[in-house]
Amino acid sequence: MDISHLDTPSLIADLDAMSINIQLMQERINDLGLALRPHTKAHKIPAVAQMQIDAGAQGICVAKLGEAEVMAQGGIKDILITTPIAGQKKIQRLITLHQGHPDTRFIQVIDDHYHVVEIAKAASAANICVELMIEVECGQQRCGAQVGDALVELIQAIQITDGVSYAGVQAYSGHLQHVKGYCSRNEQARSVVVPLFDFIRSTLEPKGMAPQIISGGGTGTYTAYQGLGYSEIQAGSYLFMDAAYLAIGDETNATKNQQFSPALKVLSTVISQPTPSRTVIDAGMKCLSIDLGMPIVEGREGVRYQTGGDEHGILHHEEGCEIFELGQQVILLPSHCDTTLNNFDTLYAVQDGKVVSQWTIKGRGRSD
Ligand SMILES: Cc1ncc(COP(=O)(O)O)c(C=O)c1O
């Protein structure tokens, strides 16, 4: 089917660009001597996670327990849950997840003694052991134990408690992923985690507390980590390369990142043309997120997208730009792939303008 036959708004993925991005990131991470554990919050589709694993990824990350349930159900066997959980309901779901998939490796991120005590209690009652990874603070000031005595005490607590085991540490600096300029981003990314690696060598290793896994990094920062001590990289957005990431710059260009190709797009239709310089399309905030800026109109240099509210997108064109026609399809590159994808039930895979496959976005809305 030609994409012109798709109803709109629809979410489409350029299959060739996506496959090249998967291959390229795997090669780059291999070259750094690290393992890749892609963050699947970007796509939420078990079949796409399997493509990443088939290309060499050693497992996946998910942000939430709900996403872990979807991925385990879809046959993925090595899953790191990168956000701490709290409350008896969640902890019981984590235990049930382990029991339902005894041949799958799950690692749960934590940062507090509460997590150790409560997860261990539930795991012991179920006669299982839950692997825990400690998130450490590295500049983002979101979750994360402080590097220092607090970290030592938390590792100790895991090591002496039945029902849990110590898998390693997570050091993710989300606040630096979109710093503009390759050198400045790399410098900042390294400098915020150097104290952690110094602490591992000076204190944790002599105490027999060296983490087996050190996990972190994203599409913006993975290049900074060679030789530091990370064992795996959690990048996710490289798969789709949204407009926000395209603007961060790379080794050769200060303002344009050309390492990966844009693969995620929203297909929309012109529904109104009130003036020659203002076109209205059927894609507003309920399908195109704007938390990281406005989407880009593909192939139309002089045309700028402005949100028109929940259901409308407004295209402003500079003088001299070719005018759109009512009913014409317009393709947009989302500014933020994660929050845009979460608005759709289906992702259409497209090659040479034809829909060749489609995936149900099984983790859509699974922020639970
Ligand atoms: C903990 C964690 N790791 C990795 C990633 C992936 O980063 P990116 O999508 O920027 O590559 C994210 C994204 O939000 C994250 O929250």
Automatic annotation (TrEMBL):
Domain of life per record = Bacteria
Q: Which CDD domains match?
A: PLPDE_III_LS_D-TA (cd06819)
> One GO BP annotation here?
D-serine catabolic process
What Gene3D superfamilies does UniProt report for this protein, alphabetically? Answer: Alanine racemase (3.20.20.10), D-serine dehydratase-like domain (2.40.37.20)
* Domain D-serine dehydratase-like: start-end pairs: 263-351
Family matches, as SMART domains: D-ser_dehydrat
Q: Give GO MF terms, alphabetically.
A: D-serine ammonia-lyase activity
Q: Which SUPFAM superfamilies match?
A: PLP-binding barrel
Any Pfam family: Ala_racemase_N
Which PANTHER family would you find in this protein's record?
D-SERINE DEHYDRATASE, ZGC:162816-RELATED
Q: What family is this protein classified in?
A: Belongs to the DSD1 family.
The protein, known as = Threonine aldolase
**Origin species:** Vibrio chagasii
